[in-house]
Specification:
Blueprint: E1 2-6, H1 11-22, E2 26-33, H2 51-64, E3 68-72, H3 74-90, H4 97-116, E4 121-123, E5 128-130, E6 136-138, H5 147-150, H6 155-158, E7 161-162, H7 170-179, H8 201-209, E8 214-218, E9 224-228, E10 255-260, E11 265-269, E12 276-286, E13 292-298, E14 305-312, E15 316-325, E16 333-338, E17 345-356
Parallel strand pairs: 1-2, 1-4, 2-3, 4-7, 8-11
Antiparallel strand pairs: 5-6, 8-9, 10-11, 12-15, 12-17, 13-14, 13-16, 14-15, 16-17
Helix pairs in contact: 1-2, 1-7, 3-4
Binding site for ATP: 6-13, 32, 125
Enzyme class: transferase
Subcellular location: Cytoplasm
Amino acid sequence: MRVLAAMSGGVDSAVAAARAKDAGHDVTGVHLALARNPQTYRTGARGCCTLEDSRDARRAADVIGIPFYVWDMADEFHASVVDDFVDEYAAGRTPNPCLRCNEKIKFEAVLDRAVALGFDAVVTGHHARLGADGLLRRSVDMAKDQSYVLAVLTRAQLDRAVFPLGDSTKERVREEAAERGLAVADKPDSHDICFIADGDTRGFLEKRLGAAPGDIVDGRTGTKLGTHNGAYGYTIGQRKGLDLRVPAPDGRPRYVLSITPVTNTVTVGPREDLEVDTVTAARPIWHETSATVDCEVQLRAHGEVVPASVAVTSSEFVATLKSPARGVAAGQAIVAYRPDPGGDIVLGSATITAGIRASAHA
């Protein structure tokens, strides 16, 4: 096949491109320039938006012996990922920008352009597997598994995707990079959010949304416990940084239970009030033939799986959890998996709209 290898400048994408070439594919490397000003995003070797990353990707392509190009996709990235990130927080939701980048940039904008240029598929360094049956599965390295952020891909996109690293641990990928003479063998993994240079998400949002003071209230009594400078600075399940002026009667910590943008209110309460037993979600992507299945669901990247019964329509995804979950935030993805000896299979995903507590059903 004629394939386009997306090369971030990290070790995973470099080894993935090399493996694709070894497999006999006609490989062309491309680095995505995602920052309008690379110096305003991350510096050093921690992200995917720096000048250093572009140079590392080019050097890796030279060692592998493949053509290499840089595609400027800064405007697309800003509109589909950065602006979406800000808008979601403003609406009281907690987005996953890595998931949105995979959906809108790497497997929509890039894949569409690649196909238009005559490529058959896009190769990435994601740790996930595509079986001979075309089903997306978890990586053998559960600590690095990225099937959660890939579960948003459609069947048509998966049919044109290649994930060469799904059968290897991260340790083995680094060893192979060193064996191949790739300078990125020891390069640190990226962390946090690539477009927030200092890691200060709350400060990043305040610069774009402005200060918006409001109340923090007790979820059981409605009592005002403190104030905040912007509800967008909080997420469901958060415990630290609440700066409450009224301690809990029992001395236990409080957690963020809900965020209401209309009233600019953050509601807090004890940890047990975070528990939900039903999760509703929208924009489902579903690969299973049955619309109702017993499976396992994951509610956050790298979060634990929970047994559930899932019912899916064209517009809604409802998971009835068989054991309560905590910290379920609107805007995150819910991903359904079917346990399988060959690796857990992704059945589908959707964007969480609400977590419902058992006491709220009455």
